[in-house]
Amino acid sequence: MRRLPPLTELRAFEAAARQLSFKDAAAELGVTPTAVSHQIKLLEQFCGQQLFRRQPRPLALTPAGQQLFPVVRDGFEIFAEALAKVSRGTAGGKLRITATNAFAARWLVPRLPLWRAMHPRVKLDIVGTDAVLDLDSGEADIAIRYARRPPAGLPSVELMRDSFCVVASPKLVGSAATPLRPCDLTRFPLIESEWPAADAAAPRWQQWQKVVGRRYKSMPDVSSLVSISFREELHAIEAAVAGQGIAICSDVLVGPELASGALVAVSRVRLPGYGFYIVHRPLHSRLDSIEAFIKWARSTVSTR
């Protein structure tokens, strides 16, 4: 059998590497910072390499520590999951999934009953956030990233792509013939969502006007007529459904409203959208459950 260091030393290293603090690792493990430091020195002697750069502060991993940390971390995750399965006597568990607030609320959550019916033993923990959570540090098991191109550095599967259409509630446009002419938009309030300033091609009214302006010689400056803007895309959608204005929305996110007639497309011009990519760590201990989620999600795309 291969010679391995004591589990105590590996636990101390994993906690300190994850938190980059001997003090926080000691609090987590219920020991003193001195004990953590001693255990890590013993592990460094075993490896014949320094694992932490202690000075200058803050604490940081050396190249050897960076090489060792993901292996130890994933090993502990595999141990924990295997023990949990043994104690439960089942192949169940929980997957933590992060997605944008808008996608989680309008696409993922309505489909969760379908997941529970097919995989009742695997619970999903949904984290709706527009921040990018770190999969390598274990903040989530799966991320559904929204981007122009596949995310770099981790395995990913494109779930689908969206496009952006100009939509309004029939309560707002009434009996007006649709699609509307560009000049007709000036009769209605316009709604806009906030997008990163670095994304010059983001689906704003300014971009829509630029595309439409290639077809019409006389084009009103609709981008200056925005009546209300929202930081959250969800709020812009709700405002459009409530008849508060015309908005540029993802066809994925407003698919149910377009199907039911709660929203109607009022322009033939669409703007290109983004891809929804399912991303995960390559050596994840729950790879079987992750693959089951990917297969399920792709099977439900047709029901969007």
Task: Tell me what you see in this structure.
This protein is α/β, with parallel strands linked by helices. It is built from ten helices and eleven strands. It has helices at 7-19, 22-29, 33-47, 63-88, 101-118, 170-173, 205-212, 233-241, 255-260, 287-300; strands spanning 52-53, 60-61, 93-99, 122-128, 142-147, 156-168, 190-193, 226-230, 246-250, 264-265, 271-280. Helix 1 packs across helix 2 (22-29), helix 1 (7-19) packs across helix 3 (33-47) and helix 2 crosses helix 3. The longest helix is centred in the first third of the chain and has 26 residues, at 63-88. It is elongated, with a radius of gyration of 25 Å. The mean pLDDT is 89.
- Portion of residues within helices: 25-40%
Radius of gyration: 25 Å
Which class do the helix and strand fractions yield?
alpha/beta
Uncertain segments: none
The total count of helices amounts to 10
Distance between the termini: 53 Å
Mean pLDDT: 89
Order of helices and strands: HHHEEHEHEEEHEHEHEHEEH
Principal-axes geometry comes out as elongated
Largest sheet: 9 strands, mixed
DSSP summary, beta strand count: 11
Give the strand content: 15-25%
